[in-house]
Write a structure and sequence with these properties.
The chain is an all-alpha fold. It is built from 15 helices and no strands.
């Protein structure tokens, strides 16, 4: 009788207790697979990051030895260790090997690592900012601005006050001016939305491309025109132990760190403006900050290596297939894949047509164009 009275005092008590316990059980049951999936995704990302890091280090040692004068990877490592730590030189190491490895090819490979990582990360950020799978660092006209500045420096001596750094300085100023123009055009209609940013970048890019073509046409220097065309297709041949290489590496590392910190904002913007507001993220403010960061990074790498296309388009999609779309996990893989891709593309570019060097942008386009067609076809099939 006492047992009945206790439950009889609250007729709904048993039902409430049962419902609460059932909900807790259901919540725990649904949370467990999610937690397991998250742990699996983190382990997968860590494994890919570690494997790609090892592959990049090995690729750097191998590609430094690739060229008109082949050098064994062991000799490459010996030369690098000699310069970094002062280890005694090997008997197989010659002064010519030392000069080729340290003065010519190591700076070139390091520039390829920085440029590839920078373009790939900026592409991933732009695809999230614009919510467009076909966005890359050149969709905002930044490359067009750099090309116009470089053409002015090569053909008409603009930026002569910068001395030996006239070309990269003029290209960077042009890229910065283009990004500011895109920003003000996108903002003139109100907030900096994805569509306004994308359309403004396309319009500015076409206008600056026309300006670059006009500069080439207006110049009567055939040699200068050839230099501009080679630069427009991209090359790492100008890499040296100088301030340009240092600036590129510092800017790329800083961009990587800031994008990792902004990973939550990128995830929120990629999910849509309404979702971003729900998560406490201002999409307009986040886009402005990310646009400044991407513009500075793209301007720095384009000023050093020219207009190398498709890296920022192709690599982020490959990274998402490997580790998913969460930017905190995707960005390290994106940077490593971009570096690997450009290092090997440059090694092929300087050997495929010896003794002439093929512009690296031709090779990246040969890889990127088929990938773009496959991506468009899959997008069409998904929405059909």
């Amino acid at each position: 009788m006492r047992y009945r009275r206790n439950y009889g005092a609250d007729p709904g008590g048993a039902a409430v207790t049962s419902t609460t316990e059932g909900a807790a059980t259901a919540t725990a049951g649904s949370a467990a697979p999610v937690a397991r999936a998250a742990r699996h995704a983190r382990r997968r990302a860590a494994a890919w990051t570690g494997a790609l890091t090892v592959a990049l280090l090995a690729s750097m040692a191998i590609t430094v030895g690739i060229g008109p004068v082949p050098i064994a990877p062991g000799t490459v490592v010996q030369v690098v260790l000699d310069h970094l730590f002062g280890l005694p030189a090997s008997v197989t190491q010659t002064p010519a090997d030392d000069a080729i490895v340290w003065n010519v090819r190591v700076p070139r490979v390091l520039l390829g690592v920085g440029v590839g990582a920078g373009l790939a990360m900026c592409g991933a950020a732009l695809q999230a900012m614009t919510r467009n799978a076909l966005a890359d660092p050149y969709v905002l006209g930044i490359s067009g601005g750099a090309s116009t500045g470089a053409a002015g420096a090569i053909l008409f001596g603009l930026g002569a006050g910068f001395g030996a750094y006239a070309l990269p300085a003029s290209a960077f100023v042009g890229a910065l001016a283009a990004s500011l123009l895109v920003f003000f055009i996108a903002r003139s209609g109100g907030g900096v939305t994805s569509l306004r940013l994308l359309l403004s970048g396309v319009a500015v890019g076409y206008a600056l491309s026309a300006a670059t073509s006009f500069l080439i046409f207006a110049s009567d220097s055939a040699e200068g025109s050839r230099s501009v065309m080679f630069w427009l297709l991209g090359s790492l041949a100008l890499a040296r132990w100088d301030a340009v290489l240092a600036i590129v590496l510092v800017v790329v590392v800083a961009t990587f760190a800031l994008l990792l910190v902004s990973g939550r904002n990128l995830d929120a913007i990629a999910a849509g403006d309404e979702t971003a507001h729900t998560l406490g993220v201002s999409p307009d403010r986040a886009r402005v900050g990310l646009l400044v960061l991407v513009s500075l990074c793209t301007g720095a790498v384009v000023a050093a290596a020219g207009a190398i296309g498709f890296v920022g388009l192709v690599i982020p999609h490959l990274a998402r297939r490997l580790v998913g779309s969460v930017h905190a996990r995707m960005l390290p893989v994106t940077a490593l894949l971009g570096s690997l891709f450009l290092v090997w593309a440059d090694a092929l570019a300087r050997t495929i047509m010896q003794p002439r060097e093929l512009p690296i942008g031709i090779l990246t386009a040969l890889v990127g164009a088929p990938f773009l067609l496959i991506l468009v076809r899959r997008m069409y099939a998904r929405h059909r």
